[in-house]
Structure formats: structure tokens, C-alpha cells
Design goal:
32 strands; eight-stranded antiparallel beta sheet; six-stranded mixed beta sheet; Rossmann fold; alpha/beta; binds guanosine-5'-diphosphate; elongated
């Protein structure tokens, strides 16, 4: 068969910088650059990349072709350009316009940061217990990701992020919704790596820092040493002539907590924090999970306007009419205003912590935006995996790659029940990385294992890890048919153990491979509407219809799948033995 070869086309390329979406197919890319899809396919084939006209291209492939024809492009993520349009559909600019007029003072939003074990959780607990439960009807506080306390008649919002290092990512995002950072430093330990990291985060977000020197009840507490260390980092205490507010506290014994809260209100006043409580609400998602009984649940922080039951809400790719709002005391409320954290029920999907949310003008535009975002998010994850293609390996193959002396990359798709466990799983897995084994998270998501996950795993040669989630029968069958491995866990330790074992080649295999035969491709026939047929000669063993096969070129797997049909001359056969064609 004749493969048409690539002949350079010298017709002019479009002027200026052309915006190209990642994961574009030759069919999409060619015409944008004044070329045909076939030009792209033939050129890439010449470079040793076998692609079809409808296959998503990696960044490298796109850039290779662009360099060849001498065009200038800017690669964007799918949806990046469209998002501007979607913001218009949602009428976000109009909200920003009316922000100034009716703005009134709002509560400050506080994030507590600091080194592990310096007392962040204790402090958050202490503040909540002392100020929320007291005198409240309905009593029991709920951990919804944030809470509000009232000090001297004025509210303060605390983001209740777990302070463990595994949550660095979420903490970093937490700072974006944050007006003031409380930096907890243990008086008996001083400034530590994560203290410095927290300072960097706060500075990057241009958020003022109030220092809480904690554990002053300890015998070995040395607050002055801590102050000196902080001054070295540019946080000079007021008592030393600087402008950093420092409170000495004991979260354990409840010393200095009131003073800390008062100081937070002083800083809040200086910052003159305002928001317009009227009109459609807008804000950020703090936490999201899939609740067995209630469906997708998101804790949001309202940043302007008032969120009401019945509002058509869009949060990232999720949308819904707000079915119920639940506050930090576990009470159902009808509405939530600026700086209030509230749990939202009624969304179509699990949003991601850090997603923006906004109330749309009507249900239709909410649904439309959500649908578009979901579409682009899928494309974006495919483009991410397209560039991972070729490099990565599955769990079952990782050890042989390591042994072969190759630096191996293990491609994983992680699905977990809640954002918290997802971040914990990925952070703990990251720690297993070594020079010879890298991990690549092709997708990290909250929610069940879906058919789209299997498709992505197929496209990116990934193994799927489910943490506290399981695929249903249909998905499981689909995965088995496509030879995609799904491993599910309920205990993080077991998960880590398995991955570590895979890295040292001790993983109990899920499948056992038996080689039944080998053949050599001697000729390729192209049949219209059928595709390509490999004319082979069986060199040893036996080739059986339905068997799984791998195509190797110079020892490298170029394709794998199953034998669809097997023929000798015109006849269908079940098997072909050594020495036959
Ligand atoms: P985090 O990792 O920063 O959230 O730290 P935790 O709040 O979990 O506190 C770590 C340990 O320090 C726990 O055993 C706390 O009981 C203890 N701790 C926290 N605050 C104080 C304090 O003010 N005084 C003393 N003596 N211990 C404290």
C-alpha cells in the first residue's frame, strides 16, 4: 500500500498570533493554519507520530507542525477563550459594576496557617468552642469547612482548613479567599519551614499577617526568640517599632484568645473590608464532597450579594437550583450574605475547592455555562494526558520499566469521595516519588469512577485508583473489556503500600500474561470502510482470534489491543500456526 507522503505547502500562513486550543485534532488545527488535516497527519507521520485526523494532538506535536510551516501561535487550554464569553452569559461584569454603590462593611475572613503541630487546629477549635456554641439554640457546630464567630457584636469568619502538610494545595487556595492570615508559631519551636512557607503564601496574596505566638504556657517557651526570628523575615513586631501585630496565646489553656480576636477586628477595620449585600451572590467554593444521602454538597463562602434558597447557582462545572442552605451550626437558613460560609445542597455535580461560584440570571444560563465548562474540562484533561502519552506506564508494567533502567512514570487517575481525602491521597503518593519513578496524576477528581475515567485511562495508559469510591458493574465491565486496571481502597495505608510494592516489583498481579505466539507484519493492506489489515507471517507459536496483541517496532510497543478477525486467504479461521501466513 502507498502511504501518501508529506510535501511542504508553501502557501502563506495566517498573519499574527493564532490562538490554538490544546488537544486540537489535525482536522481542527489544519484549517486554522491554512493547511489541510491531511497535511498535519502526513507531516507528523513523517516525524514518526502515527495520528489520525480526529485524534487529539499533544502540545509537542502541535508545536512541531507550527514550526514546520512557520506560523506563530499561542496555545491555550480548552475553554480558556470561551470562559470570557461564559462570564458574559453569567453577567459577572454587571455585578462588579454595582459592587461599589451599595457596599457596606463585611466580616473579615481569616485563615490560620503555620508549621505542623504548632497548634492551628487547637486554636480553631478553641475559638469555635468558646464563641459559637455558647448561647446558640441548636447547639452542635458542624465542620463545614468554615465558621463564623461574633466578638463584641461583630462577626469574624474562619476558614477551618485542616492544618496538615498534606493540604498545602488547599491552603494555598485558601489564602485567595482570605483577608487576614493568622500565623501560628509555637513559642517552644520557633520559625520552621512551613512557617516560612505560610509567610510566602500570605505575601504572594498580599494578605496582612497577624502573628499568634502559641504554647506560651510551656516551660521551654521562648517568645522573644520567636520575635527575633520573625523580625529576620521582615515581620517586625509593634513592640519593636515595626507594624506586625503579635499576640501571645495558649490555644490549650485559652490564654490571649480574646485579644487575638480583637486585634483581628482592628486589622479588618484598617483594611476597610466591604461588600454589597444586595443582588446576586458570588463567591468561592471552600470544600465539596459527594454525600451518600444528600448528593453533591459544597461549602461556599459568599463574597458579595446574598445567596438564597431557590437561586440558580453555577459553581465551576456544577450547577443547580439551591435546594437548601445549611450554616455552620447545622441549621437550615433561607439566605447567606457577604463573608458567610454556608453549605449548598442541590448542585448537579461535585465542584472543586477553589472554584468560583455565581448566581446566574436564570436557570437556563446556569445550565448552559455548566455544560460548556464540563465539556472544556474534559477536553483539558485529555490534552493533559495527550502530552503524557508514550511516557507513562500502568501499575502492572512499572517495575519492568524501572528494571530496564528507564526512568519510569506511573500514570494515575485518582478518584476519591471528598476533596480532603483526595488531597491527602495525592500528597501522600507524591512522597513515594523517587528519581527512577515519577508519578503523573492524569486526573484527580471527587466522585465515583465513571466511564469517562476509563476512557481517559485508555487514552493515557493510566491506572485508576478509587479511594472510598467504587465503579458500578457497567463501568467495571467496560474497564475489564478495555484492559484498564481499577484498584479501590478504603485505607490510605493499603493504597500507599500497594503503590510502593509496584515500584519494587512485588505487586500481586491482577492479570497473568501468557505469550502464545509471535508474528511478523510483512505487508499492510488498506480496505475502504474496514481500515488497515496487517498481512503477517507467524514466526512461532500460534495466533488465535480474540487474543490480545502488542505491536512492536524496534522493541517499542506502538499499539496494543485485540485481534478482531483472523483470515487465511478468503477464509475466517480460529487460529494460525507457525510458518503460515
Ligand atoms: P496543628 O498541626 O498546627 O494543627 O497542631 P495541633 O493543633 O494539632 O496541636 C499540636 C499539639 O500541640 C497538640 O498535641 C496540641 O494539644 C498541642 N498544643 C496546641 N496548642 C497548645 C498550647 O497552647 N499549649 C500547649 N502546651 N500545647 C498545645
Amino acid at each position: 500500500m502507498d502511504l501518501p507522503s508529506y510535501t511542504p505547502d508553501n502557501s502563506p500562513v495566517p498573519d499574527g498570533i493564532i490562538v490554538i486550543e490544546r488537544a486540537s485534532t489535525p482536522q481542527e488545527l489544519g484549517p486554522r493554519l491554512n493547511r489541510t488535516a491531511a497535511d498535519v497527519v502526513r507531516f507528523l507521520m513523517q516525524q514518526g507520530e502515527m495520528v489520525t485526523a480526529t485524534q487529539s494532538l499533544s502540545d509537542d506535536m502541535i508545536e512541531l507542525f507550527v514550526a514546520e510551516i512557520g506560523a506563530e501561535i499561542r496555545l491555550v487550554n480548552p475553554g480558556e477563550e470561551q470562559e470570557v464569553e461564559l462570564q458574559k452569559v453569567l453577567g459577572v461584569a454587571e455585578l462588579d459594576d454595582e459592587e461599589e454603590e451599595g457596599a457596606t462593611t463585611r466580616a473579615p475572613v481569616i485563615t490560620v496557617m503555620g508549621h505542623v503541630d504548632h497548634g492551628k487546629t487547637k486554636l480553631l477549635d478553641r475559638i469555635r468552642d468558646a464563641n459559637v456554641v455558647a448561647g446558640e439554640a441548636g447547639g452542635i457546630t458542624q465542620h463545614i469547612g468554615a465558621y463564623q464567630v461574633v466578638k463584641g457584636g461583630r462577626p469574624i469568619t474562619f476558614i477551618d482548613t485542616p492544618g496538615h502538610e498534606a493540604f498545602t494545595a488547599m491552603r494555598a487556595r485558601g489564602a485567595d479567599a482570605t483577608d487576614i492570615v493568622v500565623l501560628v508559631v509555637a513559642a517552644d519551636d520557633g520559625v520552621m519551614p512551613q512557617t516560612v512557607e505560610a509567610i510566602d503564601h500570605a505575601r504572594a496574596a498580599d494578605v496582612p499577617i497577624v502573628v499568634a505566638v502559641n504554647k506560651i504556657d510551656r516551660d521551654n517557651a521562648d517568645p522573644d526568640k520567636v520575635l527575633a526570628q520573625l523580625a529576620d523575615r521582615g515581620l517586625v513586631p509593634e513592640s519593636w517599632g515595626g507594624d506586625t501585630i503579635v499576640c501571645q496565646i495558649s490555644a490549650l489553656q485559652g490564654i490571649g484568645i480574646d485579644e487575638l480576636l480583637e486585634n483581628l477586628l482592628v486589622v479588618a477595620e484598617l483594611e476597610d473590608l466591604r461588600a454589597n449585600p444586595d443582588g446576586r451572590a458570588k463567591g468561592v467554593v471552600l470544600e465539596a464532597k459527594l454525600d451518600a444521602g444528600r448528593g453533591p454538597v459544597a461549602t461556599v463562602l459568599v463574597q458579595r450579594g446574598t445567596l438564597k434558597v431557590g437561586d440558580p447557582l453555577v459553581a465551576g462545572p456544577a450547577w443547580g437550583r439551591v435546594r437548601a442552605l445549611i450554616n455552620d451550626k447545622g441549621e437550615q437558613v433561607k439566605q447567606a450574605g457577604p463573608s458567610a460560609p454556608v453549605q449548598v445542597l442541590g448542585l448537579s455535580d461535585v465542584a472543586t475547592a477553589g472554584d468560583d461560584f455565581v448566581v446566574a440570571r436564570d436557570e437556563r444560563s446556569a445550565a448552559k455555562v455548566s455544560e460548556q465548562r464540563e465539556h472544556y474540562r474534559r477536553l483539558a484533561s485529555i490534552s493533559g494526558s495527550a502530552s503524557a502519552l508514550g511516557g507513562g506506564a500502568k501499575l502492572e508494567d512499572i517495575f519492568s520499566q524501572i528494571q530496564a533502567g528507564e526512568a519510569a512514570t506511573l500514570n494515575l487517575i485518582i478518584k476519591a469521595d471528598v476533596t480532603g481525602s483526595l488531597e491527602a491521597v495525592t500528597a501522600s503518593l507524591k512522597k513515594l516519588e523517587r528519581d527512577e519513578v515519577k508519578l503523573s496524576f492524569v486526573r484527580e477528581g471527587v466522585g465515583g469512577i465513571l466511564k469517562s475515567d476509563i476512557e481517559l485511562a485508555m487514552a493515557s495508559n493510566a491506572t485508576i485508583i478509587g479511594f472510598n469510591v467504587r465503579p458500578d458493574r457497567q463501568v467495571r465491565d467496560f474497564a475489564a473489556a478495555e484492559d484498564v486496571e481499577i484498584r479501590t481502597y478504603e485505607v490510605i495505608y493499603h493504597l500507599l503500600e500497594d503503590i510502593e510494592n509496584a515500584m519494587v516489583g512485588m505487586l500481586a498481579p491482577e492479570f497473568e500474561e501468557v505469550v502464545t505466539g509471535e508474528a511478523e507484519v510483512r505487508e499492510i493492506f488498506s480496505v475502504p470502510r474496514v481500515g488497515k489489515i496487517a498481512g503477517c507471517y507467524v514466526t512461532n507459536g500460534q495466533i488465535t482470534r480474540g487474543s490480545k496483541v502488542r505491536f512492536l517496532r524496534e522493541g517499542t510497543i506502538i499499539w496494543k489491543g485485540a485481534i478482531q478477525s483472523l483470515r487465511r486467504f478468503k477464509d475466517d479461521v480460529r487460529e494460525v500456526n507457525t510458518g503460515f501466513e
